[in-house]
């Protein structure tokens, strides 16, 4: 016979996925089951652990009855069982993340985490933000040595939390693996910083970004505006970058008001007619220095925007398919500029994992074309005025000049 407390209504560490109920809103917020599990087994336990981390309780109701034919599917012997067990153990047991969620402590105490591998393949902006979890990991595991696996090595130059950076082909066995690939893409209901923090099992409040600066080889004036005109060439992502001719109009107006402009980015990014063209002419540390010393930033969701945000540089950024609240933290000095449309943020409504938005739901890219230079200029002057920079410029209404 079972002990009375086993069949009593009460809290449990986890319940089996063959018979549990969860609010759809919570299930969606959590991003559903962890997609790193294959076919079945352990993903239900994983979900129970994650919702408990969010402060929810797992309750057992003995009055509920189901009929379950044990192992009828034969999935208990599926070829991915070891993969699922290994993934669960790495994520929860080897990392000691589970220790705060189980009621019986380990007989030998928590393990010392000394060898950690963090993975985020690309791109530069994503790796920069993903590396924000590193100080939180060091706080959680003070004895750890962190290896970072990525194709974007330069973003991690001189990062004090990284022992070494390796390419994907150099991965060897590690005690604990923190896999951040697709962590954001599988969780469209979370901000990108939240997604990385939750995937790593750390508090987002303990996360902070880092980028090293190096001396510039180019002389720049004391006050200047950085422009990043990210090209859409070679990309199927629509609604992420503002129009080239519109950006050129903004640069033209700034020049007419004697404001020096500096363009950054890759060689293939748009020529917006800036006073100083640094596209493809800076290494990572120099780009960081350009952004740190800038008075203002204008651009789109990209690495330069994230660096400007890191250094608290005021600025404005175009947002269309992507929702700014998923990218910018609440205290960001970068202000989003958007057209007045009900379809904005369509990227987050795509089927997950969504790594890009290749089509406009409306078919007319209104988020790009309806945000006119006049509207953008007005918003930009508001932010400049609030930041108390370019007083001579923000005191003027800014005349509309012909498009180039």
- Quaternary state reads single chain
Structural class: alpha/beta
Nearest-integer average pLDDT? 90
Query: Total number of helical segments?
Result: 12
- What percentage of amino acids are in beta strands? 5-15%
**Fraction of residues in helices?**
25-40%
Distance between termini?
84 Å
Order of helices and strands: EHHEHEHHEEEHEHEEHEHEEHHH
Number of strands: 12
Rg (C-alpha, Å): 25 Å
Q: How would you characterize this protein structure?
A:
With 404 residues, this protein is α/β, with parallel strands linked by helices. Helix content is 26%, strand content 11%. It has twelve helices and twelve strands. It has helices at 24-29, 43-53, 81-93, 124-130, 134-140, 192-200, 244-256, 284-293, 303-310, 366-369, 373-387, 391-394; strands spanning 10-12, 58-60, 115-119, 145-149, 164-166, 176-179, 225-227, 261-263, 276-277, 296-300, 315-318, 334-337. The strands form three sheets. It has a six-stranded parallel β-sheet, with helices on both faces. Strand 7, helix 7 and strand 8 form a beta-alpha-beta unit. The chain is elongated.
What does this entry show, briefly?
With 404 residues, the protein is α/β, with parallel strands linked by helices.
Indicate the topology.
Layout: E1 10-12, H1 24-29, H2 43-53, E2 58-60, H3 81-93, E3 115-119, H4 124-130, H5 134-140, E4 145-149, E5 164-166, E6 176-179, H6 192-200, E7 225-227, H7 244-256, E8 261-263, E9 276-277, H8 284-293, E10 296-300, H9 303-310, E11 315-318, E12 334-337, H10 366-369, H11 373-387, H12 391-394
Parallel strand pairs: 3-4, 3-6, 4-5, 7-8, 7-10, 8-9, 10-11, 11-12
Antiparallel strand pairs: 1-2
């Amino acid at each position: 016979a079972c002990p009375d407390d086993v069949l009593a209504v009460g809290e449990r560490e986890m319940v089996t996925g063959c018979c549990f109920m969860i609010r759809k809103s919570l299930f969606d917020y959590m991003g559903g089951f962890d997609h790193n599990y294959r076919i079945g087994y352990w993903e239900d336990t994983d979900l129970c652990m994650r919702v408990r981390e969010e402060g929810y309780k797992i309750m057992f109701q003995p009055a509920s009855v189901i009929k379950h034919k044990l192992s009828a599917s034969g999935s208990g012997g599926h070829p991915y069982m070891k993969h699922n067990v290994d993934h669960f153990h790495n994520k929860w047991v080897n990392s000691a993340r589970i220790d705060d969620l189980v009621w019986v402590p380990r007989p030998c105490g928590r393990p010392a985490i000394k060898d950690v591998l963090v993975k985020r393949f690309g791109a530069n902006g994503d790796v920069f933000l993903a590396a924000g979890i590193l100080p939180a990991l060091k706080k959680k595991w003070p004895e750890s040595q962190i290896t970072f696996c990525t194709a974007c090595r330069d973003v991690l130059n001189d990062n004090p939390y990284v022992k070494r950076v390796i390419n994907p082909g150099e991965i060897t066995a590690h005690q604990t693996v923190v896999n951040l690939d697709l962590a954001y893409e599988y969780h469209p209901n979370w901000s990108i910083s939240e997604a990385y923090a939750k995937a790593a099992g750390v508090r987002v409040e303990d996360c902070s970004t880092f980028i090293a600066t190096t001396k510039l080889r180019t002389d720049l004036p004391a006050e200047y505006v950085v422009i990043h005109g990210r090209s859409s060439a070679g990309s199927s992502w629509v609604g992420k970058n503002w129009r080239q001719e519109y950006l050129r109009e903004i640069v033209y107006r700034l020049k007419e008001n004697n404001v020096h402009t500096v363009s950054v980015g890759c060689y293939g990014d748009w020529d917006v007619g800036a006073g100083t063209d640094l596209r493809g002419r800076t290494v990572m540390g120099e780009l960081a220095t350009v952004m740190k010393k800038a008075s203002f930033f204008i651009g789109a969701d990209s690495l330069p925007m994230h660096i400007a945000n890191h250094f608290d540089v005021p600025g404005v950024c175009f947002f269309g398919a992507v929702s700014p609240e998923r990218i910018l933290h609440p205290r960001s000095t970068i202000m989003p500029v958007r057209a007045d449309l009900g379809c904005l943020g369509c990227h987050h409504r795509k089927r997950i994992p969504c790594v890009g938005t290749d089509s406009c739901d409306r078919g007319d890219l209104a988020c790009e074309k309806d945000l006119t230079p006049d509207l953008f200029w007005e918003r930009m002057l508001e932010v400049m005025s609030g930041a108390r920079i370019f007083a001579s410029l923000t005191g003027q209404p800014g005349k509309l000049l012909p498009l180039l």
